[in-house]
Design brief:
Layout (H helix, E strand, L loop, with lengths): L4 E4 L17 H16 L7 E4 L5 H7 L3 H10 L4 H4 L2 H14 L4 H15 L10 E6 L17 E4 L4 H10 L4 H9 L10 E6 L5 E6 L10 E8 L3 H4 L6 E6 L7 E6 L5 E5 L6 E5 L10 H17 L6 E8 L2 E9 L21 E3 H6 L7 H14 L12 E4 L2 E5 H5 L4 H9 L4 H8 L18 H21 L1 H17 L1
Antiparallel strand pairs: 1-2, 2-5, 3-4, 3-5, 6-7, 6-12, 7-8, 8-9, 10-11, 12-13, 14-16, 15-16
Helix pairs in contact: 3-5, 5-7, 16-17
Amino acid sequence: MNDKYYIFPKSKQQEAPPSPSSSPTLSEVGGKALSLIRTSALQFPVPPGFVLTVSFFQPWLEQIKQTKAWESFLSRVASADPEGSVTREDCDAIKEQCKKILKLNAEQRRYIQDAIKAAFGHDNADHLGIVAVRSSSPEEDLAGSSFAGGYDTSLGVTSAGLQDAIINSFASLFDHRIYLYKIQHGMAADAPRIAIIVQKQIASDVSGVGFSLNPNNNCFDEIVISSNFGLGESVVSGIITPDTYVVDRFDPSNMKVISKKVADKTSAIWLDEESGGTRQDPNKSPTAQALTDDEIMEVARMVADVEEKYFDGSPADIEWAFHNNTLYLLQARPVTAHVPLFPEMITERGKEKRLYLDVMVMTQGFSDPLSTLGLDIWKTSLARMKPTMSTEGFDGLMFNIHGREYMNISNMLMMTGGTAMVNTALRPNDKSLDRAFASIDLKDYTPSYVPEGCKGIFGKSIKQLLLTVPNILRGMYYGKDSMQQYVKDTNALLEH
């Protein structure tokens, strides 16, 4: 048994040299490889491959740490300003050393030979076929960090280019972007670690990404799929505008496509199956829908299954590909670009949707939760300023939970004049808020009944407005006296 490589998917029928344990750790193989190993174990259609572990690359790290480029880098990392002291040139110098001095030693070549036989059934590395070579850092593709696009990936790699592709991925460990990301997220920059994936390259007919929630409006009942012809690199790298499909899974047993935006996909990236590598060609039918309706639903079901079976219900982000009408799972990671909700705020699948507005972010400009004392002061102030708005429970217009204050937009929509209030009082105040409202259909978030806490609020609001008329008139004619009264009322409020 060794700890230098792991294969996926694991097959009981596979005759292979003594191979590692089937339960690697994150620190051994990194986030991306661990995801491939575990999703393949769950019987998802993951193309076969293997991961060279952090331990496999220890000899290379030791070589790099003997160079003057590394010594110079360490001295700058230890400075008072590590973010500003380490330059792109410092990082490039280490990357240059990687490409200059690193080579696979005899032991590493033997491990790769064994891994190729175990994963692909080939007797030697000269018949590797075409593979993709990707990084898998222990800090990558996690819920709190993604490193999206930071490390180098090599597509269409043949046997002749395997060593160079592995070295390129290893060298990207020292990229300046990676260094800055680590510093800015409180990670150790002087203890680099990396594992590298070698995986069968799928000659995709259509590929793309899928999210188990809608990152545009934070709706947990919508799956969003982006696609283009060819390899998924054109989608994830942003070189084209992909098709975008939104699938409503409000009723999990009856998912349906609710939105299609078919883009003008001017080009695609294709795998060169003869000699390896990739090529970018114009699409013959750039405005054709990349996925059929049936394929959209097949991808949507895979996204939902990955969320349920691998992420235990937490939002999932996958990369997928179709080849010869077969759907493959290429990657799975947690969604990082969304606003997490407290469990009490998430409705069950098939139940009425709810739309909330974070009052603290909108009105105060900060997103940290309030302390218990701070929230009590905030509640008291709000109750005095807007007494018609309930701040107790989910059936009113406002509620507080875990140090935060939310406006229940769904309940507001059931009030007399509620929709007008959203369109005239809320949307004009903030452009990002206006864009968010524009991206959704408010009818989908309007409840079928008037909650108890909202009954009679319109009448109470009119009454409260009329009560302010004397104060307005007093202010117009007796401004100085009004200001004194304002100070007196404010002091009284603070005393309570």
